[in-house]
Amino acid sequence: MPDRIVSASAADGSFSIVAGITTVLVRETYARHQLSLTASAALGRLLTGAALLGASLKGRERMTLQVAGDGPLRGLVADVALQAPDVIGARGYARRPDIEIPLNDRNKFDVGAAVGKGFLHVTRSFEVGQPYVGIVPLRSGEIGEDIAGYLAHSQQIPSVVALGVLANRDGIKASGGAIAQVLPGADEAVLEKLERVAGAMPPVTRQIDEGAAPEDLVRALAGDVPLRAVHEYEVQFACRCTRERVEVALLGLGRDELRKIVIEQPRTEAVCEFCKKRYVVTSDELQHLIDRLEGRVPG
Ligand SMILES: [Zn+2]
Q1: How far apart are alpha carbons 22 and 24 in whole angstroms?
Q2: Share above pLDDT 70 across residues of the chain, in percent, rounded to a whole number
């Protein structure tokens, strides 16, 4: 079954909820990047948070969530864009995908310790105009709380964020999450109630593992409040890398470095950090890039 996200709002306009299942996305990322279990929990939560926030994108907008922490993972990146009006494409990577650390004292993946202290950078690129960049300090490194911190500080939106990845040595069992946001004009009791309901419900990954659909997660979080306007999205692993972008990245190395590679290696390999696709560039092709850099060949 493909990953899905659904969004809905309270009939009285006091809050909105977006919830989804990302098991296939996280499983694919886990396999492509050969992630450790702790790295898959951390990156899986970030990918899930990005996909959920991606439900607010329009047209060709893009959003990148970058966790810059001083922990052993050395940072994480997740990036989302719409593949089609109702299809959210997501991709991401961990700087140190193989890092494994012991479980925490609650017997859970110690994502907070693996991420460490630092900042969450959120870049939102629009179809026209300058991108919006929001930077907030990490609250705990557990990702969900950090995204809630971003929504509170940069967007002034009080929210409840629950993200999870259930994994063991056999791989990724379940992944998903939910974000409930208090809408403008609602009073403080709304957030308190959402927090109470979220605190009392079983972990989202357990609900998903037991067969819950995104609609069930939305319902569980809404409690007894009637909902309206359910919108549905499909989530896919999607990378935007192309050979052209790889060449642009190579050009960034500069003429001297490129010349050195031409002399030392008959062919060079560039690997996309998001999807791990390998691009082979021969020394002839590299020489062509150098010529382009020097303006001898029209680019
Ligand atoms: Zn790629």
Answers
A1: 6
A2: 99
* CA 286 / ligand 1 centre spacing (Å): 20
- Tell how far the Cα of 113 is from the centroid of ligand 1, in angstroms: 28
pLDDT one-digit tens code per residue, 104-115: 998 899 999 999
pLDDT in tens, 170-189: 999 999 999 999 999 998 89
How far is ligand 1, taken at its centre, from the CA of residue 89, in Å? 12
Strand arrangement of the beta sheet that strand 62-69 belongs to:
132-137, 118-125, 62-69, 76-84, 87-94, 227-237, 3-10, 15-21, 171-182, 159-168
- Between the CA of 91 and the centroid of ligand 1 the distance, in Å, is 9
Q: Where are the beta strands (DSSP E) in 11-58?
A: 15-21
Taking the centre of ligand 1 as the mean of its atom positions, its distance from the CA of residue 272, in whole angstroms, is 5
Under 8 Å between Cβ of 142 and 118: no
DSSP state of 143: S
**How many angstroms is it from 28 CA to the middle of ligand 1?**
13
pLDDT tens profile 252-288: 888 888 888 888 888 888 899 999 999 998 888 888 8
Superfamily of domain 3-237: Hsp33 domain (3.55.30.10)
- Domain 243-293 in this protein, CATH class: alpha beta
Q: Where are the domains positioned within the chain?
A: 3-237, 243-293
Specify the pairing of strand 15-21 against strand 3-10.
antiparallel
Strand partners, 132: 124
Ligand 1 mean position to 115 CA, how many Å? 24
